[in-house]
């Protein structure tokens, strides 16, 4: 054959094979589960006779760091799936020619450590969007999550079982998932979607059963199909979680005790919908909030630490209208009550928290893909009590009335990748207090090829008070290319000046009309030294809606990269124009103009597979034609002493100099001062795992912050947003300086003694100090902190699962 023909033939053959391979990858795999008459023993050793004749799901392909590469011949993966009238059973065989390299770090539930692991994703409605993830590590740690697209909610917990074993050929997992842990349509033959995955830690490689094209759409669009499951019935899903708890507290030389008992329960209303309720809730052992010195115009928000408000709430968080900390938050009239003390009166009681009486949520999804969610919570009346030392009379003031919090959601999935949603939140308070109602319409739509995504929302708020009703509106629209290495997007956000969702949600700002754009380039297969990288450029233009004027603009670029050795690094650089801030002055229609500035930040994160690893971050901001600067630095080393014991320390330093900051409103003048502020945070996290069900954990945090206003550097805010010198006199009564120091330490022993059941013994101590001694340096402030009374608590909580 002539040479030119050989070349043409070779090119044709290579192209044909590549196309054939790509077509094979893109075709959805199918697996048919086998019906068993007797269930296997779940002991992690899948050698029972029942597994012998069950078909194998194999031929896994790489998702990280490569794209579709067949699994190594030295590390094949085989999975078998069967079912009975009660549960799904899975046997997974993770072969490894070097079993001594298998990473097996111990951890507690829902914590994925430095370890090999197996992943099982089940979508019982085959809608391309909602699925349940089950993970088991080579050490036997289990994790489960409710998934919405690629967002994982590990607060979601169901009762299931998994055991593992190890020999000279690899490691193995056996899994049992009762039907009570799943929701599925009521029909004779089920059609579920399925994804299987395996992570090999020492190779830094992850494989999946059904190929995932990372360059297009979301990973949940690429599940294979699970067939063969028929004639199964959803069990009566009724489970109880009764608890008892006791606490001893010592503070300022006084000792107090308390005892609580209550119950959570779950009830499967039908095959698709579940009722969750908490009766007489107990939140005494929730993690402490990371409180900071807050001198800004907005409240500080915290993450949710109460399990009932984090588990299975993906429907209720649509549109970002639900901030669960509003329920049981500080009473609306707390500050007013502090200031309402009359002459000769002292405050006997002014509760800082509102007591939650009960809460329930109902959620599920129909066979047609319609998700329905209903949430309701009730809080009781809170009152401040005053005692008159002259008349000896006691009076009361309601700070938070009896209140009802409600959410209703409809979420329709279609085309296995798109959705439209309607959500309503409502807060009704007894008497002449504030009520709030918000309705939102949302959509999230992919085209057929998953190459573009169009999403948006329109939200209407209504606030009723004793004197007025206020209506507000907000919207957002975004168009993004979701295919290929090169991607881009544009978006717009709008809110009028009366938009307010703060009864059950959080919005710090309104009255805006903002525009955003971004473009990026990323890789999906290793190139050179990189396993992956993403280079992004972005910009924004922010405007005020009424009056219609520009606030400021900015552009920036960011980079993320990870090498083949799992060393990650990145950062960003930004340039911003002058900015009109309408919130710092705390006065309607007033603004301060902050100068243009540039900021840059860089970070590194070393390989967590090694015993010693470190994360670090450094950022700096410089303001043009101004003395104002800002610096932040973080250093966080971690050391793994063994597969059972890990310590993580973190040090963070922030310093901001010469910032023009709000002081107070004096008569008709808004007073600003020049402020220096610095903060130091030390924290330590430690875990010793006796096994995957029993551990001792340490959590410590000390945060110090000092704000100093320069003497004779006070100003008056003008109508044009500029400042002019003002002779503001400070005294002990109006000193704006602040010295803030807080210490929290939790030491706990946790034992999961049965599926769904646990015992937690917690020792906690805390110290707090806030004054105006801003001239104190960190060590001096800490020394004074330890002169304050220490609040010490010892509590025991036992939860028992009853099915």
TrEMBL record:
Residues 235-803 form the DUF5916 domain. InterPro entries: DUF5916. Pfam families: DUF5916. SUPFAM superfamilies: CBD9-like. This is Carbohydrate binding family 9 domain-containing protein. It comes from Salinimicrobium oceani.
């Amino acid at each position: 054959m002539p040479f030119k023909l050989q070349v043409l033939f070779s090119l044709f053959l290579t192209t044909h094979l590549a196309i054939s391979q790509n077509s094979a990858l893109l075709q959805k795999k199918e697996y048919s589960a086998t019906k068993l008459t007797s269930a296997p023993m779940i002991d992690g050793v899948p050698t029972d006779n029942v597994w012998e004749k069950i078909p194998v799901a194999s031929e896994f392909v790489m998702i990280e760091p490569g794209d579709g590469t067949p699994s190594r011949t030295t590390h094949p993966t085989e999975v078998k799936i069967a079912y009975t009238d009660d549960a799904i059973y899975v046997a997974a065989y993770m072969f490894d020619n070097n079993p001594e390299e298998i990473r097996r770090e111990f951890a507690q539930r829902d914590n994925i450590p430095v370890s090999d692991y197996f992943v099982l994703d089940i979508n019982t409605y085959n809608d391309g969007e909602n699925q349940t993830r089950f993970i088991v590590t080579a050490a036997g740690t289990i994790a489960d999550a409710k998934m919405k697209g690629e967002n994982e909610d590990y607060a979601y917990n169901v009762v299931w079982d998994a055991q593992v074993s190890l020999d000279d050929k690899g490691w193995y997992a056996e899994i049992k998932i009762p039907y009570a842990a799943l929701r599925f349509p009521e029909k004779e033959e089920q059609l579920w979607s399925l994804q299987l995955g395996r992570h090999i830690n020492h190779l830094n490689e992850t494989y999946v059963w059904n190929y995932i094209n990372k360059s297009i759409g979301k990973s949940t669009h690429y599940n294979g199909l699970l067939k063969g499951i028929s004639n199964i019935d959803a069990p009566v899903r009724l489970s109880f979680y009764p608890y008892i708890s006791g606490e001893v507290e010592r503070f300022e030389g006084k000792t107090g005790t308390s005892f609580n008992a209550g119950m959570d329960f779950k009830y499967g209303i039908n095959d698709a919908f579940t009722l969750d309720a908490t009766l007489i809730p107990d939140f005494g052992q929730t993690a402490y909030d990371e409180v900071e010195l807050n001198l800004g115009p907005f409240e500080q928000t915290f993450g949710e630490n109460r399990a009932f408000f984090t588990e299975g709430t993906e429907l209720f968080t649509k549109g970002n209208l639900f901030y669960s900390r509003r329920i049981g938050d500080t009473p609306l009239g707390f500050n007013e009550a502090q200031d309402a003390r009359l002459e000769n009166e002292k405050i006997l009681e002014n509760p800082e928290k509102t007591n939650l009486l009960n809460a329930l949520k109902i959620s599920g999804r129909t066979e047609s893909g319609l998700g329905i969610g209903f949430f309701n919570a009730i809080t009781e009346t809170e009152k401040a009590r005053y005692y008159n030392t002259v008349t000896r009379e006691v009076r009361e003031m309601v700070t938070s009335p009896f209140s009802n919090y409600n959410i209703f959601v409809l979420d329709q999935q279609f085309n296995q990748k798109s959705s439209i949603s309607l959500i309503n939140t409502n807060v009704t308070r007894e008497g002449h207090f504030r009520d709030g109602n918000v309705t939102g319409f949302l959509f999230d739509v992919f085209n057929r090829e998953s190459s573009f995504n169009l999403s948006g929302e329109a939200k209407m708020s209504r606030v009723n008070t004793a004197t007025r009703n206020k209506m507000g509106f907000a919207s957002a629209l975004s168009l993004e290319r979701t295919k290929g290495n090169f991607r881009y997007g544009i978006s717009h956000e709008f809110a009028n000046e009366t938009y307010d969702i703060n009864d059950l949600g959080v919005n710090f700002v309104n009255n805006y009309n903002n525009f955003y754009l971004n473009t990026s380039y990323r890789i999906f297969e290793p190139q050179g030294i990189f396993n992956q990288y993403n280079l992004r450029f972005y910009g924004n233009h922010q405007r005020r809606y009424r009056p219609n004027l520009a606030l400021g603009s900015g552009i920036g670029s960011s980079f993320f990269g990870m090498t083949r050795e799992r060393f990650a690094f990145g950062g960003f650089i930004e340039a911003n124009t002058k900015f009109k801030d309408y919130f710092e002055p705390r006065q309607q229609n007033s603004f301060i103009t902050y100068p243009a500035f540039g900021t840059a930040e860089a970070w590194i994160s070393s390989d967590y597979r090694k015993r010693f690893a470190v994360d670090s971050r450094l950022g700096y901001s410089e303001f043009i034609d101004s003395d104002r600067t800002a610096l932040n630095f973080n250093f966080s080393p971690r050391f793994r002493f063994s597969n059972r014991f890990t310590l993580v320390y973190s040090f963070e330093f922030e310093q901001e100099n010469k910032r023009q900051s709000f002081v107070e409103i004096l008569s008709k003048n808004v007073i600003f001062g020049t402020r220096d502020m610095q903060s130091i945070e030390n924290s330590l996290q430690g875990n010793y795992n006796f096994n995957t069900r029993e551990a001792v954990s340490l959590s410590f945090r000390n945060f110090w912050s000092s704000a100093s206003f320069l003497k004779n550097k006070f100003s008056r805010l003008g109508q044009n947003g500029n400042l002019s010198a003002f002779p503001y006199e400070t005294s002990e009564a109006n000193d704006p300086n602040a010295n803030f120091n807080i210490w929290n330490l939790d030491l706990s022993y946790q034992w999961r003694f049965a599926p769904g059941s646990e015992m937690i013994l917690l020792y906690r101590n805390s110290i707090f100090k806030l004054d105006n001694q801003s001239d104190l340096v960190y060590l001096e402030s800490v020394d004074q902190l330890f002169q304050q009374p220490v609040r010490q608590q010892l509590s025991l909580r036992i939860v028992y699962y009853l099915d």
